[in-house]
Amino acid sequence: MSLTDLSASQILADLNARRVSSVEVAQAFIDRIERHDKAIGAFLRYDASAALATAREIDERRAAGKPVGLLAGLPVAVKDLLCSKGDLATCGSKILENFRAPYDSTVVAGLKKADAVLLGRTNLDEFAMGGSTENSALGQTRNPWDTTRTPGGSSGGSAAAVAARLTPLAVGTDTGGSIRQPAGLCGITGMKPTYGRVSRYGLVAFASSLDQAGPMGTSAEDAALLLEAIAGHDPADSTSIKAPSVAYSKSVSQPLAGLTLGLAPEHFGPGLDADVDAAVREAIRVYESLGATVKQVSLPHSKYCVATYYIIAPSEASSNLARYDGVHFGHRTDERAMLAELNAERQKLTAAGDKAGLNRLDTPLVRMYRRSRSEGFGPEVKRRIMLGTYALSSGYYDAYYLKALKVRRLIRQDFDAVFQSVDLIAGPVTASPAFKLGEKVDDPLAMYLVDLYTVSANLAGIPGISIPCGFSAGGLPIGLQLQAPPLEEDRLLRAAHMFQQATDWHTRRPNLP
Amino acid sequence: MSDPYQIVIGLEVHVQLLTESKLFCGCSTRYGAEPNTQTCPICTGMPGTLPVMNRRAFELGLRTALAIDCQIAPFTKWDRKQYYYPDLPKGYQISQFDLPFSHDGWMDIRDAKGRFEPKRVGIIRAHLEEDAGKSMHDEHAGEADSRIDLNRTGTPLLEIVSQPDMRSPLEARAYLDELKLLLEYLAVSDCNMQEGSLRVDANINLHLTTDSGENVATPIVEIKNMNSFRAVERALEYEAKRQWQVWQETGQRLGDVPKQTRGWDDAANLTRGQRHKEESSDYRYFPDPDLVPVRVSTEEIEQVRAALGELPAALRARLEKTYGVSLYDADVLVNQGRAVVAYYLEVAETCGDGKMASNWIQQDVLRTLKEQSITIDAYPVRPAQLAELLSKVRGGEVDTTRAREVLAQMLATGHTVTQTMSDLGIERVDESQLVELCKQLLAANPKVVAEVKAGKFQAAGALIGQAKKLNPNANPARVREICLELIAQS
Asked: Which of A209, A134, A128 is nearest to A171 (CA)?
């Protein structure tokens, strides 16, 4: 078995036992990136020399017997939505193609403090808006299990990188399923923690009340390790939860006795792929064989989840993305061309004596905003900005945004009620395995439905995990989703680990081209 | 007032709160630094950054709101007010929309000269928000060059919105003066209009009765760009006349045209319509998901209330009632600020004559402060010393004129009252010595004696001058009395 086939936890054990050096580990993954990432497109950028320098420094410290961090020497890839001082944070967008962050996000600071080796930055749907990574303006990412298919999204780069073993660990972000869905479609383990568990400081906002960074790896054990490094209260994020941090990596191996799983019929409705249905039901039988009891529960408001999500998320996005206006941040249109265009329009209107038209004509400032944003944002981002702007407009606010907030509360109450009687809710991550690249790009509504089973956790603010539970007849990975009450990441990880002790889906590797 | 209309005015005042750091980040709020040196990723709206509320700013807001008798909301939240402008880096301003932290207060105004009836002005709300940056537009040679300074961005602002309760520019001025004084007493703002730490927008229209007896209102106009309270007064005076003229020309009523914003041009002494946007602005307010709601406990409110100290209105009343100072004088003293009032109170208490203390402070102390451009804290004569001097005046140990010399000398030397009096050779003169002195004077001035005898009592004044020359400590009033008595007896 080669180094890159090992899980992060196994590599860390070897590093700590000094059976292998950080430099060797980093070099092994860099070699794989160089060999395979042309076909996969998981990374937007990687910096071999910087990674090796960090690895060398950690090796020296370890050799000198000096203290090292939790992840010392482990390569980690980071979604290009999290700021790292001095590095670009493109957010997969043309508008921020040249944005260099002057500060560290709390997540990246946590990784640095844990002595992780930051390998590079992974691709994503522009501003994390999408479920296939096809909305990235900067490159296409392919599913390592079938490169004609999507890795999912928006953390598709992180998921594909882990699945292809280009990195043992990756950080993703999840606003409506953006960690769990690509994890499911790429056959890896990915967790969205409780809203507020991981600081959002430095995570470029898509929808502030839903965004949450989380760990992606090959196993629950690995996810536990990464989560431990990035979770915890952060005074720089007012919405960060003041709860003691947990040593997830220590507790993950303790099995849960007397586990009660809830199954909601809403997660097994029409449209669910037969292979997915079968794999998920089989996974539940595995849990039963491990002593879990299964209970039917109901989440009556889950039919409103996608609609609610597509009011709240675009509304917040329309506001969060206002700063990319060409003045403070982001691409600015060619001013000479813009002024020439404006002048030509003015002359034409003047010649025609069109006073009303002249009155309506943009000021140069407004035209600069208009052109910069038109050029800088991709179609899906524009669509959501328009949806959100509309929903927040005076006269519509009550009917859309306010109403959505009310429904959101009902969705949360559904979960609160269910968790009175079950420990976890189990179900599919997605209705079907990875779809073909290009298949849904012209059908935004179909694309929105890929979030069907995942958005509820974001709306309710609860943690959820996706773990591999089988393969479709076509050989594509299938994910099992577990959801837990707020702050019960530990329970999720232990339950996932139990399953991974009894199955080997998470150890399967794609054959890379 | 014989105007055929009633002026109706409401004021919106933005106050920069005196915090060390900004409302949502740790940057300094100091005025006057090099542009863009007091900024950080948070106040420049860097992608990914998040605001964290400055509790101190909230407390200062709370102090002010309680001082204007506002109701404090037990639960308040932050909203985003969205608009595009180059000095607004996030594309939205964090403000408070439908749940301001305080509402429904009031403030009493009155005019010491009695030019309007005392009245209570309602306060609709006071809410907190972050300030925007500053745009500087240089336009020369056809090239427009705009610069943005983000030092101010994120400075805490308290917006205080009054009811349209003012009926004249004078009342508006009185409201502003009283509010500014209150803010200074509360030490929540330095209220410097030049530096923009206090900004005023005024809403004004006219209520009038048509020939057919119908009560109507003219369209409300918001006036901006006023850089002093005097400018507010003048702008309102101008605008009332302008609206009356427009009404006579067009008959436009409230609701006929959208609300207009006009800018005050101080040099030209007029208001100008600002470029009218076709679409009315829609700020698309919504609760800021980056911030958590603020809860205020009753205990916290009571704590802040208890620490407010005595405020101007209460102080004026106390000065009038307890120290026998006239309304006008109480006003002058209280308007000087808390430090002068404290000085006054100590002098008045110690010397036992509130009126005398008031006169001396107004005529002597304040004049020196003004001449030397110093504050009361830098005034060399401390209240206990002034009180000692005034006690001696009251006890007849020194007359007012000589006491002024003493005070002047004390200011110059920093010596004590006793020391200074001895330096100046001031000592109590015996009655017998005075009688001797007067006899001498009468003997030397037969002409004066004759005049007084003929009923020209003012002629005795000449004797006092001479007495002072012979013995500077001679009490002029007493000299005059003795002389008159002696003449009458002769």
From this structure: A128
Ranges of each domain in chain A:
3-249+259-301+412-507
Q: A3-249+259-301+412-507 adopts what CATH topology?
A: Amidase signature (AS) enzymes (3.90.1300)
**Which one-letter DSSP state was computed for residue A255?**
P
Q: At what angle do helices A22-40 and A48-63 cross, to 10 degrees?
A: 160
CA distance A180 to A192: 7
User: How does A108-145 read in b/e, with b if 16+ C-beta sit within 10 Å?
Assistant: bbbbbebbbbbbbbbbbbbbbbbbbbbbbbbebbbbbb
Residue B489 has what pLDDT?
84
- Three-class SS state of A426: strand
Report the half-sphere exposure of A498 (CA within 13 A, side-chain side). 22
Asked if residues A455 and A192 have their Cβ atoms less than 8 Å apart, the reply is: no
Per the structure block, which two tokens stand in for A169?
């660990």
A456 is catalytic: no
Q: What is the pLDDT of residue B454?
A: 85
Active-site residue A472, yes or no?
no
Q: What is the 3-state secondary structure (H, E, C) of B18-74?
A: CCCECCCCCCECCCCCCCCCCCCCCCCCCCCCCCCCCHHHHHHHHHHHHHCCCEECC
CB A185 within 8 A of CB A433: yes
Give me the interface pTM, i.e. the ipTM. 0.96
What is the spatial distance between Cα B194 and Cα A306, in angstroms, rounded to a whole number? 52
Q: b or e along B4-30 (b: 16 or more beta carbons within 10 Å of the residue's beta carbon)? A: ebbbbbbbbbbbbbbbebbbbbebebe
Q: Give which of B82, B277, B284 to mutate to test A binding, by max A Cβ within 10 Å.
A: B284
Strand partners, A479: A468
Calculate the alpha carbon distances from B12 to B17, B132, B172, B223 in Å: 16, 17, 11, 10
Query: Three-state SS for B386?
Result: helix
User: Which token pair is B180?
Assistant: 């500014």
- Distance, in Å, from the CA atom of A246 to the CA atom of A227, rounded to the nearest integer, reads 9
Where in the sequence of chain B do the CATH 1.10.10 domains occur?
Answer: 431-489
How far apart CA B380 and CA B489 sit, in angstroms, is: 48
pLDDT of residue B275: 64
| pLDDT value at B274 more than 90 | no
Of A316, A329, A392, the CB nearest to B289: A316
pLDDT in tens, B443-490: 888 888 888 888 888 888 888 888 888 888 888 888 888 888 888 887
CATH architecture of the domain with range B431-489: Orthogonal Bundle (1.10)
Return the residue in B46, B283, B295 with the most chain A beta carbons within 10 A, the one to mutate for interface testing.
B46
List CB contacts of B51: < 8 A, sequence separation 6 or more. A238, B23, B24, B25, B42, B94, B288, B290, B291
How far, in Å, CA of A290 to CA of A499, rounded?
Answer: 8
pLDDT in tens, B277-290: 544 579 999 999 99
* Cα–Cα distance, A293 to A262 (Å, whole number): 9
Q: Do the Cβ atoms of B47 and A315 come within 8 Å? A: no
Measure in Å the smallest separation between the Cα of B108 and chain A Cα atoms. Answer: 36
The answer to whether A77 and A161 are in contact (CB under 8 A) is: yes
Nearest CA in chain B to A327: B86
CA distance B75 to B293: 7
Write out the H or E segment, with its range, that includes residue A366.
helix A364-376
Tell the burial category of A289 from Cβ atoms under 10 Å away from its Cβ (0-12, 13-18, 19+).
exposed
Question: Average pLDDT, stretch A91-117?
Answer: 98
Please indicate whether residue A79 is annotated as part of the active site: yes
Q: What is the CA radius of gyration of chain A?
A: 23
Q: Write out residues 229-268 of A within 8 Å (CB-CB) of B.
A: 235-239
pLDDT digits (tens, 9 = 90+) for A39-92: 999 999 999 999 999 999 999 999 999 999 999 999 999 999 999 999 999 999
